[in-house]
Amino acid sequence: MKQSKTTELMVGMLIAAGLAALFVLAMKVSNLSSYSEQSSYNVIARFENVGGLKVRSPVMAGGVLVGRVAGIDYDNDRYEAVVTMKVNQSYDRFPDDTVASIYTAGLLGEQYVALDPGGSEDFLVDGSEIEFTSSALVLEKLVGKFLLNSAESGKK
Amino acid sequence: MLDWIRGLGRGGFRFFETLGRANLFALKTLVGIPAVLVRPRLLVAQLFSVGVLSLPIIILSGVFVGMVLALQGYNTLVDFGAEESLGVVVALSIVRELGPVVTGLLFAGRAGSALTAEIGLMKATEQLAGMEMMAVDPIHRVIAPRFLAGFISMPLLAAIFAALGIYGGYFVGVGLLGVDEGAYWSQMQSQVDLYDDVYNGVIKSLVFGLVVTWIAVFEGYDTVPTSEGVSRSTTRTVVYSAFAVLGLDFVLTALMFGA
Fold first, then answer.
1. Does residue A128 share a domain with residue A79?
2. Domain residue limits at B108
3. Taking CB atoms and an 8 Å cutoff, what residues of chain A touch B47?
4. A29, B170 in Cβ contact below 8 A?
5. B interface residues, A as partner, C-beta within 8 Å
6. Which of A53, B45, B190, B220 has its CA 20 to 30 A from that of A134?
7. Is the pLDDT reported for residue B60 higher than 60?
8. Pairwise pLDDT comparison (B168 vs A40), residue with the higher score
9. What does the alpha-carbon distance between residue B100 and residue A147 come to, in Å, rounded to a whole number?
10. CA-based angle B148:B104:B43, to the nearest 5?
């Protein structure tokens, strides 16, 4: 079979274009860039209630992404949720009295863990536990409290 | 009445016969694939006619589908003041659904029908029989390269379709409608998951490529060797492929995203 160089060239271009498109999809469209396995250290925190927090939810400090939630478990003995976070190694100066809180981005947005640094001289290291935590706000509880308050004030 | 039931039974038998032949045929083709790999020139020629020649229609429809999605999505989202999410809407619908499905349908129409017609005509003009006379297995020489070419080109075409569709959406959304450029990309990146969305889209396109090419080469190989038979097989290829793509898409979506 006679096969011109143009045919081969065109097929090569098709394959190159297809691979380039896959590359664009992976790098530009999806969240691969945030997958990049930078070296990180694990920190755990216990919460009464994690609300809608999920694995791979962001961990922010001062609004900047510093890590991701790596795992959420339930401690059967202490009846608390245990959240494991992977924090990037480049942010290794969090004091060990840092406060971890679960906030919601926007009114109905996704939930994230916010780290507020404390004033201690010692830093969090791999495997250390954040002692000061505040749980996710559960909207139903808030509404319930609000209704209860307004009912009581209405009685007076 | 009895005749009608007997007709139903005969139809059922014929259906299962065809299914069985198609499966045996697929098995033989798979066995023939190593024979293609030692002669890559056959494969390159088929990649050209199946893949490269399908490229213009894929590029064109990819860009336009992306542009239409951006236009429609914008009109809906702007009512909620959420036009920043346009990137997510365009990217998710293209990467998950429209990319593989529309590419599959176009591929069936552009490449599948051509494959069936070509192989069917080869059979009608007894070229396949001639090859057998010369001790050349037509499955190795004719079918397997085309099958492999379809299987390879389909995911590539779907990826090109998806990437261009997203850029088409970018062009309309950011360029014409004034969505913020940073929001378009960053919202997209935060919502589109590499494994859940992109990989599953690629898996879909692989499955569609396999099924569409399988139907196309089988219909060609199994055709009634007359001009009418070839025309019927070509029609059947397009109809069955569209059916298979849409049906399988539902099944795959249910498996991937339904849980």
1. yes
2. 2-257
3. 11, 14-15
4. no
5. 41-42, 44-45, 47-48, 51-52, 55, 91, 95, 153, 155-157, 159-160, 162-164, 166, 185, 188-190, 192-194, 197-198, 201-202
6. B190
7. yes
8. B168
9. 50
10. 20
The span from the CA of B57 to the CA of B208, in Å, is 18
Residue B67 — φ and ψ, nearest 5°?
A: -65, -45
Residues A53 and A102 in one domain: yes
Q: Which residues of A touch B42 (CB under 8 A)?
A: 1
Question: Which of B109-113, B184-188, B206-210 is the least confident region?
Answer: B184-188
Please check whether residue B64 is in contact with residue B72, taking contact to mean a CB–CB distance below 8 angstroms.
no
Q: Under DSSP, is residue A87 helix (H, G, I), strand (E, B) or coil?
A: strand
Same-domain check for residues A88 and A121? yes
**Sign of torsion, CA A50 A53 A56 A57?**
negative
Give strand ranges (E) for chain A: 40-47, 58-61, 64-75, 80-88, 99-104, 111-116, 129-130, 132-134
CB < 8 Å to A11, chain B: 44, 47-48, 51-52
**Residues on chain B touching A27 (C-beta within 8 angstroms):** none
pLDDT digits (tens, 9 = 90+) for B67-100: 999 999 898 888 887 777 888 888 889 988 899 9
- Quick check: B197 and A30 CB within 8 A? yes
Q: Is residue A19 part of a domain?
A: yes
Whether residue A148 lies inside any domain: the answer is no
Give the position of tokens 């037509």: B138
CA gap B108, B102 in Å, rounded = 10
Rounded to 5 degrees, what are φ and ψ at B66?
-60, -40
**Domain that residue A51 falls in:** 38-143
Give the model confidence (pLDDT) of B19-42 as tens digits: 898 899 888 888 888 888 888 888
By the 8 A CB rule, do A113 and A51 touch? no
Residues A91, A101: Cα–Cα separation, whole Å: 18
User: What integer is the mean pLDDT of B88-113?
Assistant: 91
